Amino acid sequence: MRRLFLASLSLDGLEAFLGGARGRRAAWVPTAADPLEDRDRVRALFAGMLETIGLSLLPCELDRDDDPTIAVRLAASDLVIVTGGDPFHLLARARASGFDRALQARPDLPYVGVSAGSILVGPSLEPHVLTSPFAPAKDQSLEGLGLTEHVVLPHHDREERALLHDVAQQRFGAQWTLTPLRDDEVLLVEGDGQSRVVRAR
Questions:
Q1: What is the pLDDT of residue 201?
Q2: How confident is the model at residue 193 (pLDDT cuts 50, 70, 90)?
Q3: Sequential DSSP letters for 84-141
Q4: Cα–Cα dist 146/64, whole Å
Q5: I need a labelling partner for 39 at 20 to 30 A (CA). Which of 33, 47, 79, 86 fits?
Q6: Is the pLDDT confidence value at 30 over 80?
Q7: C-alpha angle with apex 140: 136 to 143, nearest 5 degrees?
Q8: Per-residue pLDDT reduced to its tens digit, 81-104
């Protein structure tokens, strides 16, 4: 079973999770940032965070439909990292580009998600219609990639988001496992399926 490192923001603890990061090649998906006005700044921020711990980044853009190069990039990588932005845009591009299928074909690859990247792999993005500052396209399917039973609710230490998370919990808590994460917390899912929230350090 795939190992998951699902963060709200901080990547502290990622090196330990990977058993060392220096020299490892990471397929990096920055696509969630594409709709943002400060797209380039957000991309640079995440790239800097990842390169600081010694990862070698292999950008994996999801801007083409049915893109065969995605599987090639995953095959050349030791892990996959999907960073933050608009989760609904990310989901749409993951489906259209074939990233979802390429990822499912490589269950051996550890998956690292940050914010939208953590949201993507849950069972559904429906709770995020209530909690996210972004909105899905009309008639967009909100089924997530289903790599975990957890619906990650990032940025729980931000007061307005925490209030919205409480609303989502009341509405969807009986249907899915909603897991709020502060920006200094990470949800770890191990290969045996066991999961726990830890403070990033």
A1: 62
A2: confident
A3: -S-HHHHHHHHHHHTHHHHHHT-TTS-EEEETHHHHHTSSBSTTHHHH-SS-PPTT--
A4: 22
A5: 79
A6: yes
A7: 100
A8: 999 999 999 999 999 999 999 999
Report which residue type is found at 168: A
Instruction: Output the six-digit token pair for 154.
Output: 């990032």
41: exposed, middle or buried (Cβ count in 10 Å: 0-12, 13-18, 19+): exposed
**Rounded distance between C-alpha atoms, residue 12 and residue 16, angstroms:** 9
What three-state secondary structure class fits 156? coil
What does the block give as tokens for 93? 């591009």
Average pLDDT (173-180) is 97
Locus of tokens 């960073």: 83
Nearest alpha-carbon partner for 105 in 13, 182, 2, 189: 2
